[in-house]
Design a protein that fits this description.
Elements: H1 3-9, H2 13-45, E1 57-62, H3 70-85, E2 90-95, H4 103-111, E3 117-121, H5 122-128, H6 144-164, E4 167-172, E5 176-182, H7 189-193, E6 198-200, H8 204-213, E7 218-220, H9 225-231, E8 236-239, H10 241-246, E9 255-264, E10 266-271, H11 272-277, H12 280-314, E11 318-319, H13 325-342, H14 349-362
């Protein structure tokens, strides 16, 4: 007896048999779909789980520095060493040139897990830990040796402070000495007062500094500065030489001051959440590679800043006349006033005292 005959004998018939088979298949398909969805949901909910092709893990890294810059060259070298040391299990995905937005945008994306690490200037670092701006104080340092000494002495303190805020300090990368780039020559406080000066929007340190200096600034995001220079909205900006070259600001001004506003701090931070998801071995490899290549980057940045000045001069930028001893003394006196005004507001007085004590060790 065939299957159809058996079905007929049982009173069901071929049509009812096929109907039952289709229903059975639909139930199986629906169960499969639900199982797949449940698996995705469970994996998504489990702490520490990431969707990684081939078991590889990636650190999503953002920076304002463009591809091809010393920043990115050293970051690619860092990634190469990390990949080799981990057998390809850990790598990077880079977002250079500000494609992830301003530093405030990057911090927001790090906090919600869209990005894992980034290179920051003092402005971004200060959004996370305001007291770190003590290292950005105008007219604080006199030379590179003082900068290296203070950073070395203060690393332990700031590592713990960033950790408490949910970030891991992988290394310092100071941006370099900050100069005024302007349409008109600036060599004195009075010259600065007579110009339309830009200020990084939302930066309390520069806001206070300009208040003390008697300057009324135009607050703008970094990404809006070039257009503001083109339209004449602003005439003076402050930046490291490399920054002014990379961002093309120097093409819209005539002079670079020999007055140094200060030394801009910088660092690479990673979210504590992402760092702790790495194995202990991968954490150690990342720390070791970061220390090696970020230290190399610091030396490279110093060299790049000098070369940037030479390149900009060849393209028409002029060095302003150096300030007189009296003019320079006025800047330094106002720098002391700025420190006093920010002490207890942006950073505790005890922290400033500690930094000044380290400086006196060399002076």
């Amino acid at each position: 007896m065939t299957t159809f005959d058996k079905a007929s004998a049982s009173g069901r018939g071929p049509s009812r048999f096929f109907s039952w088979t289709r229903s059975h298949r639909m139930v199986c398909i629906l169960c499969g779909i639900l199982a797949a969805l449940l698996t995705v949901f469970v994996l998504w909910r489990l702490p520490g789980q990431t969707a990684q092709a081939g078991g590889k893990d990636y650190i999503k890294f953002a920076t304002l520095a463009p591809e091809g810059s010393s920043w990115m060259k050293q970051m690619h070298n860092l990634e190469k060493e990390v990949k080799q040391a981990t057998g390809g299990e850990l790598g990077f995905k880079f977002y250079p040139g500000g494609v992830s937005g301003d530093e405030k945008d990057v911090i927001r994306k790090m906090r919600i897990g869209q990005l894992h690490a980034a290179g920051f200037t003092g402005v971004g670092l200060g959004e996370i830990l305001p007291e770190v701006r003590v290292l950005d104080l105008p007219f604080l340092f006199r030379n590179d040796r003082e900068i290296a000494h203070v950073y070395d002495k203060m690393t332990g303190y700031f590592s713990k402070a960033f950790e408490a805020k949910g970030f891991v300090l992988l290394g310092w990368v100071p941006v370099g000495w900050i100069h005024f780039f302007s349409v008109k020559e600036i060599r004195s406080v009075e010259d600065l007062r007579q110009t339309k000066a830009w200020m990084w929007e939302g930066d309390p340190l520069v806001q206070t500094a300009y208040d003390v200096l008697g300057v009324t600034p135009h607050p703008l995001s970094v990404t809006d500065v070039l257009m503001a220079l083109q339209t004449g909205m602003v005439e003076t900006v402050y930046s490291s030489p490399m920054g002014a070259l990379a961002l093309q600001w120097y093409t819209k001004v005539n002079y670079m001051s020999q007055v140094r506003m200060g030394n801009s701090t910088g660092a690479v931070l990673m979210t504590r959440r992402k760092f702790r998801k790495l194995s202990a071995r991968h954490q150690e490899i990342l720390r070791r590679a970061s220390k090696k290549y970020l230290s190399m980057l610091v030396r490279q940045i110093r060299s790049d800043n000098q070369r940037a000045i030479e390149v900009m001069q060849k393209n028409g930028l002029k060095l302003a006349a150096p300030p007189s001893a009296q003019e320079l003394e006025q800047f330094h006196k106002l720098g002391a006033v700025i420190r006093k005004r920010l002490s207890g507001r942006l950073f505790p007085p005890s922290l400033l005292k500690q930094v000044m004590a380290h400086l006196q060790e060399l002076r």
